[in-house]
Amino acid sequence: MSATRTREREIKLASDEPLDPARVERIAESLGLQLTGTRRIRHEDVYFDDPGLRLARAGRGLRVRRADGGLRLTLKTELGGEGALRERDELEVVLVGEPPCRVRDLPAPIREQLAAVSTVRRLTPIAALDTQRTRLVSGHGDTAVEVSLDDVDVLDATGRPVGSFHECEIEIGPRCDPAVWTRFADALRSELGLTDAPANKLGRALALLGTPTCIATPGPLHATLPVNEAARRILLGHLDAMRRERERVLRSGAIDAVHALRVACRRGRTTLRTFAPWLPEHLQRALKRVFRSAARACGPLRDLDVLVEDLRADREALPDPLRAAARAIRRHLARHRQRLLEGARRELGRNRRATQLARAAALLEAEPADASPLLGEVAPACVRAAAERVLGDAERILARPIATVGDDAIHELRLALKDLRYVAETFVELFGRALARFGKRMAGLQEITGRHHDASMAIERLLGLAAKRSGLPRRTVPVLGALAALAAQRVTAARAALDAARDDLDPDDLRVLLDAILRQREPR
């Protein structure tokens, strides 16, 4: 059976009420754009997935559309994009008869695509949409742009409406300049109060049906849970957080989204190390690849965001004659951030990244095949192992004056404190508030070492900018030196704070405290 493959570029905007085609046409005309061929269309869509929504969570939608007396089966794959402009791949075939309920019975082109990214076997309807569409067109062929004004009713299993939403889709042909239609989208936002759609149609429908694609951790941890099942639950939560924050980075590029994605990767890596003895190697390799690729994609961007935040605060401490040059540096860094963001989006939006994420989730969702000890039996050893790494680093640092300790040693302590904090938070349900307080104590020490690391990196980057200038005007060189000096003061302050926290880092005291916490309260 032949299939049609297309690559779509579109901007999706949400509206609180049905849109007036005449107003949309007038806004287009004000920008010198012509929209013609108004046409009303109705189509009914049914989306299929397994009960765990593996396809939806992997950014794929399997849709059967009934329109003009026929059925078409479409597999949609979200590919990411930049800003509001999104790309997706569509593979479509004409169906004869009703859609099959097993993947193996699907038309070969779609079956092969699903087999490459998912372990889904059985299919069930997960959402039904009844759409009234007003279609406006500009141009034709590869230069065509289609503007669709959709009023969508979401139906439950009995066919009754449970909610509705309205949106505008701007589908841009492959040979069109997206910048022109991005300006059109900006005008629609300004004139009609439209906003970027929070998700695709399937995602919005699932939210109305009460079955969002982000799956929470399935139940609390308890001492009688097998270790591999506990690891599965925790890691699925990290993957869902990664997927959520990845979409935010692709959509908005916000500083907090970049930071949250990095944190999700770090937590995932810590969990993977903690439970490594009870996880198969092929699963560990798949998860390491996912966590590593996302962290690397956002690493330089996050580091720059920290530097920019520091510069915003430091600018107030500069003499007035230097502040104008400081603004030039911030503008330069803002342009550099945009380049880094574009690179991160390209990397995160690659189809193979979504495929890696889907495969890792599918492996985790499979039932653990091997017997494993109970969580309560191994949890104390897991906490102690993470603690010993901190204590070893602390012993080496506290053996000499803080002023003589290298930056790398303090950075290693910071990473170890992060891991111990995450491990403590993982097992707090088993050991109660005492372990939670211990985790907060580690977080306070981590915050000190984090300030030291950020300031040390700021000095390195500022001096690098002063040496290369990289397009900065000559007048910024003294400012870069002044900012580096302020960062050096933060390094000194962080080292002083670390020296003052010697009692909190005393290895003997920490061992006694941790032993008391783990023994006093047996895992529930």
Please, could you describe this protein's structure?
The chain has 524 residues and is α+β, with helices and mostly antiparallel strands. 57% of the residues lie in helices and 19% in strands. It has 17 helices and nine strands. It has helices spanning 21-30, 54-57, 108-117, 178-192, 201-209, 227-251, 255-275, 281-314, 320-348, 351-365, 375-398, 407-426, 428-431, 433-468, 477-500, 502-505, 507-520, and strands spanning 4-15, 36-49, 60-67, 70-82, 85-95, 124-138, 145-155, 161-172, 195-196. An eight-stranded antiparallel β-barrel has the order 1-5-4-3-2-6-7-8, surrounded by four helices. Strand 7 (145-155) and strand 8 form a beta hairpin. The longest helix has 36 residues, at 433-468. Mean pLDDT is 84; it is low at 214-218.
Write the element-wise H/E pattern from the N-terminal end onward: EHEHEEEHEEEHEHHHHHHHHHHHHH
Low-confidence stretches: 214-218
Give the biggest beta sheet: 8 strands, antiparallel, barrel
Q: Return Rg in Å.
A: 27 Å
Estimated share of beta-strand residues: 15-25%
Discrete helix count: 17
Provide the helix percentage: 55-70%
Overall outline: flat
State the separation between the terminal residues, measured CA to CA.
57 Å
Structural class: alpha+beta
Overall pLDDT: 84
Top keywords for this entry?
single chain, alpha+beta, 17 helices, 19% strand, flat
Care to give the gist of this entry?
The protein is α+β, with helices and mostly antiparallel strands. It has helices spanning 21-30, 54-57, 108-117, 178-192, 201-209, 227-251, 255-275, 281-314, 320-348, 351-365, 375-398, 407-426, 428-431, 433-468, 477-500, 502-505, 507-520, and strands spanning 4-15, 36-49, 60-67, 70-82, 85-95, 124-138, 145-155, 161-172, 195-196. It starts with a strand and ends with a helix.
